[in-house]
Design a protein that fits this description.
Helix content: 10-25%
Number of strands: 4
Structural class: alpha+beta
Largest sheet: 4 strands, mixed
Number of domains: 1
Length: about 50
C-alpha cells in the first residue's frame, strides 16, 4: 500500500494519494487544488487514479 501526503492550494491543505503498487490503482482523498501536482505525483508512483 502506498500512502503519500501532498500539500496543495493557497491554504496548504493536505491531500492524500493512496494506491496499490501491484495493481497500479489509486485513490485521491481531499484533492482540493493543484490537479496537475496530484496527477504528477500519481504518475511518478505508477498509479492510475480510479477513485476520488
Amino acid at each position: 500500500m502506498l500512502l503519500k501526503t501532498l500539500v496543495v492550494g493557497p491554504i496548504a491543505a493536505n491531500c492524500y494519494l493512496l494506491g496499490c503498487p501491484q495493481t497500479g490503482e489509486g485513490a485521491v482523498i481531499d484533492p482540493g487544488d493543484e490537479a496537475e501536482k496530484i496527477l504528477q505525483a500519481a504518475q511518478e508512483a505508477g498509479l492510475k487514479i480510479r477513485y476520488i
